[in-house]
Every structure is written in structure tokens, then in C-alpha cells.
């Protein structure tokens, strides 16, 4: 459970680091100086790494394979991104988002099957 909690926190920061600067649309995003966007994103990524690295070490120490850690991270990232996309960026979810999520969850299921 600590691995999943740390991965969730990590992915919140990762999603913010990668996409926060898109809020407000292309005109607003393009008005932000790229050096400032990069600096803020690096700061957020540093916090993200402070959660992701321990999450992976703890998970690996408890018997998760590297593949299991990665697919769990992807499933969490997709979930968090979906929430971020709707709540922060104001974009709508479509059936394609749901289908992609189902594929990732199926991949996660295959890696954890029989474990």
C-alpha cells in the first residue's frame, strides 16, 4: 500500500509538472516565458522524484517486479491525468479515454495475474 500511495502523490506532481502551463488555452500558455515554465516544471519534477523513487524501491523490496511497478505507475498516471484534464484544463473525457484506460488496466491485470 505505501507503494501505491507514494505513486499517486508522485503522479499528481508529475502531471502538474508536465501540463500546468497549458491551463488557459494556447494564447495564455504561449504568453508564459518558456524559461519560467521549465524552471517551475523542474521544481515540481524534483518533488515528484522524491515520491517516485522511494515508491519504486519499497515496491521492489516487497516483491514487485520492475514491470509491475511501471504498469501500476502508468495506470495511476492515466487516472490522475484524466482528472487533471477535466478539472484543470477543462477538456472533456471521451470514449477513447475510457478505452485507453481499460487497456492499461487490462495490462496491469496481466502483469499482476498469478502474483
Any key phrases for this structure?
5 helices, mainly alpha, single chain
Q: Mind summarizing the main beta sheet?
A: none
Helical element count? Answer: 5
Order of secondary-structure elements:
HHHHH
Helical content (DSSP H or I, runs of 4+)? over 70%
What is the residue-averaged pLDDT?
92
Strand content: under 5%
| Radius of gyration, whole Å | 16 Å
Shape: flat
In total, the number of strands is 0
Q: What structural class do helix, strand and pairing data support? A: mainly alpha
Q: Alpha-carbon distance between the termini?
A: 16 Å
- The multimeric state of the shown protein is single chain
Spans with pLDDT under 50 lasting ≥5 residues?
none
Descriptive overview:
The chain has 115 residues and is mostly helical. The protein is built from five helices and no strands. Helix 1 runs antiparallel to helix 3 (34-61) and helix 4 (66-87) packs antiparallel against helix 5. The protein starts with a helix and ends with a helix.
Architecture blueprint of SSEs:
Layout: H1 2-19, H2 25-31, H3 34-61, H4 66-87, H5 95-112
Q: In a nutshell, what does this entry contain?
A:
This protein has 115 residues and is mostly helical. The chain has helices spanning 2-19, 25-31, 34-61, 66-87, 95-112. It has five helices and no strands.
Amino acid at each position: 500500500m505505501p507503494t501505491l500511495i507514494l505513486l499517486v502523490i508522485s503522479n499528481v506532481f508529475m502531471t502538474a509538472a508536465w501540463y500546468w502551463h497549458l491551463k488557459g488555452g494556447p494564447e495564455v500558455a504561449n504568453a508564459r516565458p518558456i524559461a519560467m515554465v521549465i524552471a517551475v516544471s523542474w521544481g515540481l519534477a524534483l518533488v515528484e522524484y522524491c515520491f517516485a523513487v522511494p515508491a519504486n524501491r519499497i515496491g521492489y523490496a516487497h516483491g514487485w517486479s520492475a514491470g509491475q511497478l511501471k504498469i501500476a505507475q502508468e495506470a495511476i498516471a492515466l487516472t490522475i491525468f484524466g482528472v487533471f484534464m477535466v478539472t484543470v484544463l477543462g477538456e472533456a473525457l471521451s470514449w477513447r479515454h475510457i478505452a485507453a484506460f481499460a487497456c492499461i488496466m487490462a495490462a496491469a491485470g496481466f502483469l499482476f495475474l498469478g502474483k
